[in-house]
From TrEMBL:
Keywords: 4Fe-4S, Electron transport, Iron, Iron-sulfur, Metal-binding, Repeat, Transport
The protein, known as: Proline reductase-associated electron transfer protein PrdC
NADH-ubiquinone oxidoreductase 51kDa subunit FMN-binding domain mapped to chain residues: 90-255
Domain RnfC Barrel sandwich hybrid, residue spans: 4-57
Organism, as annotated: Dorea longicatena
Pfam families referenced in this protein's UniProt entry, alphabetically: Complex1_51K, RnfC_N
GO cellular component, one term: membrane
Gene3D superfamilies given in the database record: NADH-ubiquinone oxidoreductase 51kDa subunit
GO function term, MF aspect, one: electron transfer activity
Length: 471
C-alpha cells in the first residue's frame, strides 16, 4: 500500500483542521482532523505515521501490518460514550453522504419529522395535488437507485448486507421520528429486490418502491417525487415533503456507527472500464479512505493499453482525475475509458444540463475530442438558484423538448453537438437534432462504449413501472 492522502475537505462545507502533528503514530480510527464549520470529523483509515501536513491534506505512511481492529469513536472523540445518543454517534463518526453529495449525515438527520410541517407546494409543477396537500407522517427515503450507469457497489451491498441496511434504516427512523421508510430501487435489480423482499417480511413500516431504469432516478428530488408523489422546487429540501433522503451506503454507515461505534474510515466503490481484469464491474468493499486511484485500478487488473481518461465518480457527474489522486468518503467509482474519437477540429455546440457535467466538464470533453466549441446552450429546465451554484433541474428526469436549442446550434453552424442530458432529455434532443443534420455525442459515450452499456440517445425504457410494494 502506498501513502494514504486524507483530504481535509471530503464533505459539503469548510475544510477540516488537522488535530495531529507530523511524526504522530496513528491507528485506524484515530481522529486526525475536525470541522471548522459545517463539516465532518476525519479519521485515519490505516495504521501508520503522519509524514506530511499540507494546506489541503494529511499524508500518512501506512505500516506494514494493518490489523482489522479500529479505534472506536467512544475513545477518539471527546464527549462520546456508550450512552451517547444515536445522533451524536453518527455525528462523531464523521459520516457524510456516501452517494457522492457529501453532506454531513449528522446534520441531515438532526430533524424531527413528526413535527415538521409540509412546505408550500408549487401548483405549476404539482397540478394534480391540492394546495393544502399533506403527508400523514415523516419518511426516511433510501436511495437504492444506483443511479449512475455501470456502478454496482450499492446493489451488491443490498444483496450481501441487507441486515445492516435494515438496522440503519430503523436507526434513521428513530433519530428523525419518521414513522415510515421507503427503499427506492430500480426495477431491473431483480436479485437485490428478492433479498429485500425476504428482509422486509416482518417490517410493516418499511416498503420498496420500484423505479424505471432511467437517469437520474437517484436525484434527491426525483426520489421524493417517485416515492411520495410530491415534486419539490429547485430550492426546497426533502424536509418540505416531511422526508429525509439517504443513500444505501450511508444508511449502512449509520448502522456501523451505532452498533460498532465505528468511524467513517472506508468506502465501497466500483472500478470499471478498460482494464486487464475485464470491463465488468469490480466491486470493492471497505477500501481505506485516501488510497490512490492508481492503487484501486491495479486491484482491478491495471489499465489495458491506451485509454481516453480516468474518471472519479460516475459517467454523468464524475470528473477526470489522475492515478495519484486520493480517494475520499464520496468516491463511488473509478472509470477507465476507451480513447476519444478525433473530430479534427470540427465545430461543436455543447448543451449543458443540470443532470450531467458542468460547462467546464463539457468543454474539457470537447477538447479531448479535438472539437472547436462555437456554441453553448443550457437545458431549458436547468435552473441556477444563485450565481455560480450548480444547476438544478426543474423536473428531474421528465423533460420537454429541446428544439429551440437545436435550432440555435444549427444557426451557429455546429457540425456536432455534445449533450450531458438525462435519459428523457436526450430523447427529446434526438427527436429533432439529427433531422437538422446535427451529429450527436453524449458526454457519457466513451464510458458507455467501454462498459458495453447502451448509448444515451432515444429513450426505449418506459417510465411507467410498478408502484410501492407492501408486505
Amino acid at each position: 500500500m502506498g501513502n494514504v492522502q486524507m483530504l481535509l475537505r471530503q464533505h459539503v462545507g469548510a475544510p477540516c483542521a488537522p488535530c495531529v502533528e507530523v511524526g504522530a503514530e496513528v491507528k485506524k480510527g484515530t481522529l486526525i482532523a475536525t470541522p471548522t464549520g459545517l463539516g465532518a470529523n476525519i479519521f485515519s483509515s490505516v495504521y501508520g505515521k503522519v509524514t506530511e501536513i499540507t494546506e489541503d491534506r494529511i499524508i500518512i505512511e501506512p505500516a506494514a501490518e494493518q490489523p482489522d481492529e479500529f479505534v472506536p469513536v467512544t475513545e477518539s472523540v471527546e464527549g462520546i460514550t456508550d450512552e451517547s445518543s444515536k445522533l451524536d454517534l453518527v455525528k462523531a463518526a464523521g459520516i457524510v453522504g456516501m452517494g457522492g453529495a457529501g453532506f454531513p449525515t449528522g446534520v441531515k438527520l438532526n430533524i424531527n419529522l413528526e413535527e415538521t410541517p409540509m412546505g408550500e407546494l408549487d401548483p405549476e409543477i404539482n397540478p394534480e395535488l391540492p394546495k393544502d396537500f399533506t403527508l400523514d407522517c415523516g419518511y426516511i427515503l433510501v436511495n437504492a437507485a444506483e443511479c449512475e450507469p455501470g456502478l454496482e457497489h450499492n446493489t451488491r451491498q443490498i444483496e450481501e448486507q441487507s441486515d445492516k441496511l435494515i438496522r440503519g434504516i430503523k436507526y434513521s427512523m428513530e433519530i428523525t421520528h419518521a414513522k415510515k421508510a421507503i427503499i427506492a430501487i430500480k426495477k431491473k435489480h431483480h436479485k437485490a429486490i428478492k433479498v429485500l423482499q425476504k428482509a422486509l417480511e416482518n417490517e410493516p413500516d418499511i416498503k420498496m418502491h420500484l423505479m424505471a431504469d432511467i437517469y437520474p432516478m437517484g436525484e434527491e428530488r426525483a426520489v421524493v417525487r417517485e416515492c411520495l408523489g410530491v415534486l419539490l422546487t429547485t430550492t426546497q429540501l426533502p424536509s418540505a415533503a416531511r422526508s429525509v433522503v439517504v443513500n444505501v451506503e450511508t444508511v449502512c454507515k449509520i448502522a456501523e456507527a451505532v452498533d460498532e461505534k465505528k468511524p467513517c474510515i472506508s468506502k465501497n466503490m466500483t472500478v470499471r472500464g478498460k482494464l486487464n481484469g475485464g470491463n465488468e464491474a469490480h466491486v470493492f468493499f471497505d477500501v481505506p479512505v485516501g488510497v490512490s486511484v492508481g492503487e484501486m485500478i491495479e486491484k482491478a487488473g491495471g489499465i489495458d493499453g491506451k485509454y481516453g481518461e480516468i474518471i472519479m465518480g460516475g459517467a454523468f457527474t464524475g470528473k477526470s482525475t489522475t492515478l495519484d489522486a486520493p480517494t475520499t468518503k464520496t468516491t463511488g467509482a473509478i472509470l477507465v475509458t476507451v480513447e476519444f474519437p478525433d473530430l479534427h477540429g470540427a465545430t461543436m455546440g455543447i448543451l449543458v444540463c443540470a443532470c450531467g457535467g458542468s460547462e467546464e466538464r463539457m468543454r474539457e470533453i470537447a477538447s479531448k475530442m479535438n472539437a472547436k466549441v462555437v456554441s453553448m446552450c443550457k437545458c431549458k429546465q436547468a435552473i441556477e438558484n444563485k450565481p455560480g451554484a450548480p444547476l438544478k433541474c426543474l423536473r428531474p428526469g421528465n423533460c420537454p423538448g429541446q428544439v429551440k436549442n437545436n435550432m440555435q446550434f444549427k444557426k451557429d453552424k455546429c457540425e456536432y453537438i455534445l449533450i450531458g442530458n438525462c435519459s428523457d432529455c436526450s430523447n427529446t434532443v434526438m427527436a429533432s437534432g439529427p433531422k437538422m443534420g446535427l451529429k450527436v455525442f453524449h458526454q457519457t459515450d466513451h464510458v458507455m462504449r467501454t462498459v458495453g452499456h447502451p448509448l444515451y440517445r432515444s429513450l426505449k425504457v418506459s417510465k411507467e413501472v410498478s408502484q410501492d410494494i407492501d408486505f
